[in-house]
């Protein structure tokens, strides 16, 4: 897994490089936006950890340029606690996750594992299951031929279940699929989203498996 680290803080970036290499990542590191854009133009990375507060051009500009060029690389942004506006801008521009400094190394590693799994899931862009058609690129859904408006978290939850139609998921597994999408961990979160999905797609769309959790329902056309 080739990871691109863009971070100007020398102490932090050298610590991260050691830890990431120990976790079996191949790490490429630069400390400015200019160097990042140049490296991205000439290299293929599997994922990127991007500090937003960089000297000169900030990290947001890197993300913007990247997405404008159609580069789908998963990006986790690092930002200061008081930089909420930057964080939101980052997510709107297509960042996949964020961490607020200071953060625990273990949390960064856990989130990178989620990004890697999601990246593997993104290789297939269309998913069709009975009357359900999902487009992973545009996050759009058609149900019985009609477009259905889903919130991003509803989409991610539905995708997780639709990709494994035989599998019964417990709540913790479903929560993990939403992890990194800015969702809190209230214990009823999953039930709330399932409720929304049933309201939009019909009660049969998601089956409750008593004592275990949920699986995708019978979506016959
Ligand atoms: Ca910085």
CATH topology of the largest domain: Rossmann fold
Radius of gyration: 19 Å
Low-confidence stretches: none
Question: Mean of residue pLDDT?
Answer: 87
Major sheet, described briefly? 5 strands, parallel
CATH superfamily of the largest domain: Response regulator
Quaternary structure type: single chain
Sequence of secondary-structure elements: EHEHEHEHEHEEEEHHHEE
Question: What's the β-strand tally?
Answer: 11
Shape: elongated
Number of domains: 2
Strand content: 15-25%
Strand order of the largest sheet: 2-1-3-4-5
Range of helix content: 40-55%
User: How many DSSP H or I helices?
Assistant: 8
Q: What class would the helix/strand composition place it in?
A: alpha/beta
Distance from N terminus to C terminus (CA atoms, Å) equals: 40 Å
SSE topology:
Layout: E1 2-6, H1 10-22, E2 26-30, H2 33-42, E3 47-51, H3 59-68, E4 75-80, H4 84-92, E5 97-101, H5 105-121, E6 126-129, E7 132-135, E8 140-143, E9 146-148, H6 152-163, H7 171-178, H8 189-201, E10 206-209, E11 213-216
Helix pairs in contact: 2-3, 6-7, 6-8
Tell me what the structure shows.
The protein is of the alpha/beta class and 221 residues long. 42% of the residues lie in helices and 22% in strands. The protein has two domains: 119 residues, Rossmann fold (3-Layer(aba) Sandwich), CATH 3.40.50.2300; 91 residues, Orthogonal Bundle (Arc Repressor Mutant, subunit A), CATH 1.10.10. The model has no long low-confidence stretch (mean pLDDT 87). The N and C termini lie far apart (40 Å). Strands 2-1-3-4-5 form a five-stranded parallel β-sheet, sandwiched between helices. It has a four-stranded antiparallel β-sheet with strand order 6-7-8-9, covered by helices on one side. It has a two-stranded antiparallel ribbon with strand order 10-11. It is built from eight helices and eleven strands. It binds calcium ion.
């Amino acid at each position: 897994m080739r990871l691109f680290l863009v971070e100007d803080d020398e102490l932090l970036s050298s610590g991260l490089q050691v830890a990431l290499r120990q976790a079996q990542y191949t790490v490429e590191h630069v400390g400015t936006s200019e160097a990042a854009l140049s490296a991205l133009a000439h290299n293929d990375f599997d994922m990127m950890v991007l500090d937003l507060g960089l000297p000169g051009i900030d990290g947001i500009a890197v993300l913007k340029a990247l997405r404008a060029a159609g580069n789908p690389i998963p990006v986790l942004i690092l930002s200061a606690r008081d930089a909420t506006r930057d964080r939101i801008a980052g997510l709107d521009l297509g960042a996949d996750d964020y961490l607020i400094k200071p953060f625990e190394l273990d949390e960064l590693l856990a989130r990178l594992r989620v990004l890697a799994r999601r990246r593997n899931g993104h290789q297939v862009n269309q998913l069709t299951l009975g009357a359900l058609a999902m487009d992973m690129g545009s996050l759009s859904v058609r149900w019985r031929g009609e477009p259905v408006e889903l919130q991003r978290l509803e989409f991610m939850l539905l995708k997780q279940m639709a990709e494994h139609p035989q599998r019964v998921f417990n709540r913790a597994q479903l929560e993990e699929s939403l992890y990194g999408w800015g969702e809190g961990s209230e214990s009823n979160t999953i039930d709330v989203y399932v409720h929304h999905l049933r309201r939009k797609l019909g009660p049969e769309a998601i089956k409750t498996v008593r004592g275990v959790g949920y699986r995708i329902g019978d979506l016959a056309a």
